[in-house]
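hiii, so i know i said id send this last week but things got crazy w the move. better late than never?? heres the sequnce for the chain we talked about at the cafe, plus the structure i predicted for it. fair warning i was half asleep when i ran it
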Amino acid sequence: EELMKEAAVMKATGVDKKELEKKEKLLIRVEELHEVNPMLGHRGCRLGIVYPEITEMQVKAIVSAACELAKEKEKIIPEIMVPLVGHVNELKNQKELIKKVAQETMKSYGVKIKYMVGTMIEVPRAAVTANEIAQEAEFFSFGTNDLTQMGFGFSRDDAGKFIKIYIKDKILEEDPFQVLDQNGIGQLVKIGVEKGRKTKKDLKVGICGEHGGEPSSVIFCHNVGLNYVSCSPYRVPIARLAAAQAVILGKKIN
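okay and structure toks below
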């Protein structure tokens, strides 16, 4: 919208024709990339596959920062996470590019660092084919916000229009974007963990999203064998308390 305004003003005033041409070309590109449903569209690893320079830029920045720290004798192992993978070949594609850029960057700094390449499990297909994806991934992080969105077929940006009525009419007990749906989305997480660890026994697995700070969701994550939860800073104390309670409860049961 701002770009359209700028181009219109420049066109009306007739100043800086070269700059106007640049803005008009950029505007055409923006319109080409416009999507009706961007949440299921051209984002995540799809963007990196079509425009590899985006992945290259991000990997170079991550590895460069790690190399700078390595020169200062600081030990750091970056975890490079490829988002929105639904098929193992998407991860293979991005992993090859990541390794290439990482190698080039380390060579330019004259240092070697260890790093890990993993993926976000956000697409239901990724959860049910986690055994294949684990062949290429060194860790999983379940993106439960998107997994909930795609599993339920609810847009998390628009679900607020009807979720309260669903809860009021007892169609749902809780808002699934706030409390993990253990019987549905939780089972996708469980399947993903089990299948992933059949391929790689010591696969590091966690979740990323607001569910990581909700007590009952944290307990569920502990019970299905996740190594960690990630959440907003203000939810960290709640998450730590819930994790401790899950461990104590687990010991009592056993």
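btw Residues 190 and 224 are 6 Å apart (CA to CA). thought thatd interest u
miss u guys!!
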